[in-house]
Each structure stands twice: as C-alpha cells, then as structure tokens.
Amino acid sequence: MPRVASALSGKTLRLLLDGQDISGLISAPSSGWQAFQSREISDVTVGAGTHTLRVKFETGEVNLAYVDVAPGTVELPARIEAENYQRANESTPSSNSGGACDRRDGVDKELTGDSAGGGCNIGWTTAGEWVEYDVSAAQAGILPRKVLPG
Q: Residue 85: which of 5, 15, 30 has the closest Cα?
C-alpha cells in the first residue's frame, strides 16, 4: 500500500514486483502536496526469496511517503520508507529539489508532513522516474486484501 499525495488531479503511479505490474494505475489524491492518503492493492502472490519492488511514477507530480507491505503468509518488512530505496531512475541526477535526506543521487526528497509517516517523502517526480526496493520473503504466499476509499 503506497501512501501518496499531490496537489494536482489525474496524477498516477504503479507498483511492479520483479518487473510485473501488481497494482495497475494508482491515482494520487489531489488535496495538496502533504495531504497523504493510502492506496491499497491486494492479492499479490509472492514467491519465497529476494524480490525487487519498483514504484514507477507514471505521470510525475506525485509525492511518495512510504509503501506498507502487509504480511499474510509472507514475512516482509511492514513498512518501506520512501527514502530507503536501493536504486532510482532520476531525471535530474545533479540536484535534490527538496534538500532533505540527500544521498547525492538527485532523487528529490523533503521532510514529510505526513503525520502517519516520518522521515522524508519523495517529491518533484516526473513521468518515467522510479525507485526500487529489495524485499525478501521467507516463504511463498499472497498478500491480503484491504480496500480503502479514495
């Protein structure tokens, strides 16, 4: 479940696990850059072993605070903070527009205003940018379904 925000309507992203789309297009709320809301996905089958979770910003202009992974029969981290990515594709690798949590890789991060999170969120996204997280499952399973409005 990604926690996202935007001040603009029609902004989207998607989640991919090992290169496979597991979410379809996810719409960000348009209530403000720090008005984060959760977007849930469900029924994702995960095999045992190491996997790559990619957050792909389809339209850009989406802020990402974190991705929650709710374990079913799979042991995964409960929360992956946005700024803890392993790899990124950044359109402006020479600067961090947000000025926070700087790793000198150009991914734009700022201190988050999300009361449900903490640390930094990724912002100033442009279409086609992405961040990847390495996750590991002790055994195969399906992540459970939760549905929230929005």
A: 15
